[in-house]
Amino acid sequence: MSSQEDESAGGGSEPAEPSSSPSTEIGTTSGDIITVTIGATVPTGFEHTAAEEIKEKIGVDARISKDRGRVFFPITTDKLFQVHLLRSVDNLFVVVEEYHHYQFKESKEETLMELQQLASTLPWTNALEVWKQNGTLKKKKGHRRGGNTAKSKPNCEGVGGSMASTEQQELPQENSAPEGWAGDTQAMETSTQDSDETGHGSKLIKFRVTCNRAGDKHSFSSNEAARDFGGAVQEFFQWKADMTKFDIEVLLNIHNEEVVIGIALTEESLHRRNISHFGPTTLRSTLCYGMLRLCKPQASDIILDPMCGTGAIPLEGAIEFNHSFYVAGDNNDMAVNRTVNNICHIQKRRADKGSMSGLPIDTVQWDLCSLPIRTSSVDIIITDMPFGKRMGSRKKNWDLYPSCLREMARVCRPGSGKAVLLTQDKKCFSKAISRMGGLWRKQHTVWVNVGGLHAGVYLLKRTGAVFGQTPEDVYESRGAVHMQGEEKDDKELS
Ligand SMILES: C[S@@+](CC[C@H](N)C(=O)[O-])C[C@H]1O[C@@H](n2cnc3c(N)ncnc32)[C@H](O)[C@@H]1O
């Protein structure tokens, strides 16, 4: 795999030479085991967690991209099914080609022309073979609502190649689509039920190009890049562009001067796999996995999520770290119902597959500030606290956070207990924790992105102090804790 510092990847005003990734070095014929590079999007902040999981479960080193929230790793295709079982990855793709230092031309016209020319020179064969093998492994989306994975991010637009008709250029004669991949091939093992028939009675492949672009030095928009690159892909393969019912999604990821072309291997993000009953602030299972790994659950640990919402964290724990026991609680009856339904859904899915093992999890309705749990009896507390935006309010957090830290300290085992707490209300959390030094020690913070909000995952260690014998145990009223200035900020925020 090329290193990110590989200067030979590009130079002068010409486009960078393709980097020699495994996907381009090892040839193949259909059915062979080949080596390719897989790219995965992961929750930002938990890239290293993903790399650790990949090393543990697939045995290879992952490279963390400059573009936060992505990892790349080599696999042989016999390991493809294991890639789909990773718990830390959201979306998967196979790399067609990557350029670490792509030298974009100055003018928009020249750059777009070059992107068009690129399409016919890329080493598509191995990536398409992986896409084909992946057809039986990937989880099919129940129904596509307005497309596969298009998001309304400013820099993320999905564009079918058909829009490129006005700027298409002639392809060099010597370039032709890899054998068996022209649009009228019969070799496709895709969801072709709704694909068009070609004149020969075979299936016409539908595709779209999605461009994700980040960086402010580009003379073109992601829309224009997807349109022109997509047009050239269409011309090269003779595929049909379709924004919503596509068989193949080609990804054009541009991050400053890094360009990665890939083919998507997931129809919907893997983070949705546990939850059937969503709530207003359901956490991605991949983020839950990262939080769980932070606290290293051990066999027979009692693990509490006292504000479980839909149960995303304890469910991920009960599935992946199933030698511990989880208690999921919430004071909202709708949240408790959703958690119960989510647990039942997974139990049923397992039973349908012939598995008799239940999940080590129970659900309770409670008020976190007064838990029906014995003092010093819990090993780990892991929860996603109300940010005070969509859930609760900033104002309420000034009461809630100190109360819940105190009650968590009561039930948590002194000396060995841990807490992993997620919040975006960093100011309130920092204030509350700074007054709890006798009960909690802040060990580590992971900064994450939750739905576009910059949030902290705080790893706390319970001190050895016996509950009831520190000044922190005494409840301080909101008025006593705050200075006047903070009160003003709080009002502005709420
Ligand atoms: C951010 S949400 C948790 C979302 C959850 N992680 C999920 O994936 O669905 C916070 C939860 O805290 C609950 N909550 C707020 N105050 C509480 C209290 N005093 N006791 C118990 N739960 C509380 C809310 O009802 C809400 O479900």
Radius of gyration: 26 Å
Low-confidence stretches: 1-29, 143-174, 182-195, 476-494
What structural class should be given to the helix and strand makeup?
alpha/beta
CATH topology annotation of the largest domain:
VC0802-like
End-to-end Cα distance, whole Å, is: 49 Å
Kindly state the number of beta strands: 16
* Average of pLDDT: 81
Bound molecules: S-adenosylmethionine
Family: Belongs to the methyltransferase superfamily.
Protein name: THUMP domain-containing protein
InterPro entries: RlmKL-like_Mtase, RlmKL-like_Mtase_CS, SAM-dependent_MTases_sf, THUMP_dom
GO molecular function, one term: tRNA (guanine) methyltransferase activity
Task: Detail the topology: elements first, then pairings.
Layout: H1 22-25, E1 35-41, H2 47-58, E2 63-64, E3 70-76, H3 80-83, E4 91-99, H4 108-119, H5 125-134, E5 156-159, E6 206-214, H6 222-237, E7 240-241, E8 248-255, E9 258-264, H7 285-294, E10 302-305, H8 312-320, E11 325-330, H9 333-352, E12 361-365, E13 380-384, H10 394-411, E14 418-423, H11 426-434, E15 440-450, E16 453-462, H12 478-481, H13 484-493
Parallel strand pairs: 6-7, 6-8, 10-11, 10-13, 11-12, 13-14
Antiparallel strand pairs: 1-3, 1-4, 2-3, 4-9, 5-6, 8-9, 14-16, 15-16
Helix pairs in contact: 4-6, 7-8, 10-11
This protein binds S-adenosylmethionine (SAM).
Short recap of the structure:
By secondary structure, the chain is α/β, with parallel strands linked by helices.
List keywords for this structure.
binds S-adenosylmethionine; 28% helix; alpha/beta; 9-stranded mixed sheet; disordered N terminus; 13 helices; VC0802-like; 2 domains; disordered C terminus; 7-stranded mixed sheet; Rossmann fold; 494 residues; elongated
